[in-house]
Amino acid sequence: MIVAVGSTNPVKVEAVRRAFSLFWEADVRGVDVESGVPKEPFGPNAIEGARNRARNALRALNADFGVGIEGGIFHLFGKYYCAGFVWIERKDGVHSTGMSGWFECPEAFLPDMLRGRELGDLMARLSGNENIKREEGAIGFFTRGAVKRVDLYTHGTLMALAKFIAAGRWPR
After folding, report:
1. What are the protein's UniProt keywords?
2. Can you give the CATH number for the domain in which 71 is found?
3. Known binding residues for substrate
4. Which residues span the domain enclosing 162?
């Protein structure tokens, strides 16, 4: 089974590999595709970006599954949260979605993010690690490594895989 991830970010590719390998033998490959949304998407744009990444990756590699993971900012209950939205699409067009765990977005970052700055860029400046979004991520920095970005995205991928894992158990 070939699984195409709509990103070459090693964190996203590894998260998908971890999730799929719990249930299937899969050849997980990252591919650079367009998301069609701003670099730091808010709300529905993150969902759209994940969908676009999954579909573009599926086509690019003629894979069995396409997976799009789009980190974004979501506004709920008067606060902004960072989370990853995951869209998984099978080659027959059946899709499923999931989300990673959420954490509150630092208020000090919001003015820059609302102007289009990416969380990863702000975290690079704060942490001194230019590759933070390709490594531990903001959550790894803030939790001192207790939770890493790959953990969040693995969780989100598993949530999106539930429909496919359940197979005959999934209600119709």
Report:
1. Hydrolase, Magnesium, Manganese, Metal-binding, Nucleotide metabolism, Nucleotide-binding
2. 3.90.950.10
3. 7-12
4. 2-169
